[in-house]
Structure formats: C-alpha cells, structure tokens
Design brief:
By secondary structure, the chain is of the alpha/beta class. It has one domain: 3-Layer(aba) Sandwich (Rossmann fold), CATH 3.40.50. The protein has helices at about 15-30, 40-50, 65-80, 105-130, 155-175, 190-200, 205-210, 225-230; strands spanning about 10, 30-35, 55-60, 85-90, 135-140, 180-185, 240-245. Strands 3-2-1-4-5-6-7 form a seven-stranded parallel beta sheet, sandwiched between helices. Strand 5, helix 5 (about 155-175) and strand 6 (about 180-185) form a beta-alpha-beta unit. Helix 3 packs parallel to helix 4. The longest helix has 28 residues, at about 105-130. The radius of gyration is 17 Å and the shape is globular. The mean pLDDT is about 95. The protein binds NADPH dihydro-nicotinamide-adenine-dinucleotide phosphate. The site of NADPH dihydro-nicotinamide-adenine-dinucleotide phosphate (NDP) has 30 residues, from helix 1, helix 4 and helix 6. NADPH dihydro-nicotinamide-adenine-dinucleotide phosphate (NDP) binds near residues 15 and 142.
Length: about 250
C-alpha cells in the first residue's frame, strides 16, 4: 500500500531540512527522488548522502520562482527519468519583519518562493502526472497557514494561500486521478528555524512549552506523511491540510 517502487518524485528544496527528510522517506519507500534547488553543491551532497544509504536520487538545479527554470526542470526530469508521479512543493523562505517594515521586494520574495512556486511547479508537472495516469502533489504549508504572527505577515499570507491553492488544485485535478494535499509542519529544527531562534527571544522555550509532544520536530518526522500522501494509501484523500506538529495546533 505504501510502495513507491517505479515512481519518480520531484522535491523542491529537497537538499536540506524538511525537504531532505521527505525525500529520504520517499526514496526509502522505493521512489527515485529528484532534488531541485538553487545550491548545486548542497543538492549534490544530499544526493551523495541518499545514494550512500542505498537510495535512488538525482539533483537538478532550479529556481522555483523562475518560470523558465521550472519549465526546464520538468523537461529535464522527464528526459532523464521518463516520468513524474509525485511533486512535493517544499521550497520556502521567510523575511522576519513587522508588516510596516516589509519592503515590496521582501513581500514578493516570500510570495514568489512559497506560493507562486507551487503554482509554477504544479502547472509544469500536470501533463506528466496526467500521462502517468494520475499522481500526487504535496504542498508544504505551515502553522502560519492557520495562525497569525506579527513578524510573518508575508509568510503567513503565502502559507494560507498554499492551503487554498491546494483545495483548488484538488478539485481541478480530481478527474485526472491526481490527489493534492498540504502538510502543515509544526516547529521543526532546520536552518530556517535556527535563524528564527536566534532572532526571536524566548522562541525555543515557548515552542517547547506549547508542543504537547514536548520537543521540536526533526525533518525525519515529515517522512511518514510524505510517503502516505504519495502512495495509494491516500488515493481517496484530496484537498486536506494535515498538521505534523506534535500537537502544537490543538493546544
Ligand atoms: P530550509 O531553509 O532548511 O530549506 C528551504 C529549502 O528551500 C532549501 O533547500 C532551499 O534550497 C530551497 N529554496 C529556497 N528558495 C528556493 C528557490 N527560489 N528555488 C529552489 N529552491 C529554493 O527550510 P525548512 O526545511 O525549514 O523549510 C522547508 C519548507 O517547510 C518551507 O516551505 C517552510 O516554509 C516549511 N516549514 C518549515 C517549518 C519549520 O519549522 N522548519 C515549519 C513550517 C513550515 P536552495 O538554497 O538550494 O535553493
């Protein structure tokens, strides 16, 4: 039910953090994973790690905010690996400023990286998913898809948008046998949140106090949900947003 043998998965931002945690899970379930990121050296290192673990992985350089780069990415995936079955829209960024201090460039950078990228990649993946007879799109939201935070207005807007975009895609592509779901990670220890911990005083302790599981998440905590949403086990699940947060969102 969870076997991904013969499937090709594209994971944007799969060279580190949550993306690599999910890429590893998908590869362990049998998929060939294509890691798409801007930093070629980091992607090569991630592929090397996965291959050393006996997993199948490849890396392609892509800027998911750039339409031509996204088009080239899916062209190359199809040329090298013949198919695309799974897309994980994981690449993301944030600019931590109060809304009144955000520049328009900050706003666009966050929206383009977190939301417009999901549109560009999903649109480019669609013909390949159709050709494969169906497929899976997994969009990465956030706790800030559902909560507000003073220093995360652009980020929250983009991640709220990811959930609504997920619902629209799910309805649009259900007839193509393409299931589209979102994952809402809680506080996960990655480069992104290491920056937040340094900038936001007391954040580390506040997260621990509010998370019933009593710990920060690790990238490996996202592997299971990625496999589930990429596999036939979730074939009748579409348009949902699943928190993976140690209980943060219910406490
Ligand atoms: P990281 O900073 O560790 O990883 C972000 C990834 O995105 C990098 O691999 C980076 O690769 C890639 N990326 C950024 N911009 C682009 C771009 N323009 N084109 C291609 N790739 C890009 O962050 P996390 O692992 O923490 O975050 C992953 C996702 O999870 C994000 O969407 C984030 O918002 C979300 N999330 C994270 C949470 C957490 O607690 N960590 C909580 C909730 C959501 P490269 O530099 O090579 O381009």
């Amino acid at each position: 039910m969870f076997d991904l043998g013969g499937k090709v998965a594209v994971v944007t931002g799969g060279n580190g953090g949550i993306g690599l945690g999910m890429a590893r899970g998908l590869a362990q379930a049998g998929a060939l994973v294509v890691i798409a990121g801007r930093n070629a050296a980091k992607s090569a290192q991630a592929v090397q790690q996965l291959k050393a673990e006996g997993l199948r992985a490849d890396a392609l350089e892509a800027d998911v905010t750039d339409e031509a780069s996204v088009t080239a990415l899916f062209y190359q995936v199809a040329a090298r690996h013949a198919r695309v079955d799974i897309l994980v829209n994981n690449a993301g960024t944030t600019v931590r400023k109060m809304p009144q201090d955000l520049s328009l460039a900050d706003w666009h950078q966050v929206m383009d990286t977190n939301l417009t990228s999901a549109f560009l990649c999903a649109r480019a993946a669609h013909p390949h998913l159709q050709r494969a007879g169906g497929g899976k799109v997994i969009n990465i939201g956030s706790m800030l898809s559902i909560f507000g935070a003073p220093y995360a207005s652009a980020y929250g807007a983009s991640k709220g948008g990811v959930v609504q975009f997920t619902r629209s895609l799910a309805t649009a592509w259900a007839g193509d046998n393409i299931q589209v779901n979102a994952v809402l990670p809680g506080w996960i220890d990655t480069e992104l949140t290491q920056g937040a911990r340094q900038q936001v005083a007391g954040l580390h302790e506040r997260v621990l106090a509010r998370t019933p599981a009593g710990r920060w998440g690790a990238p490996a905590d996202l592997a299971g949900v990625a496999v589930f949403l990429a596999s036939q086990a979730s074939d009748f699940i579409t348009g949902t947003a699943i928190p993976v947060d140690g209980g943060y969102s219910i406490s």
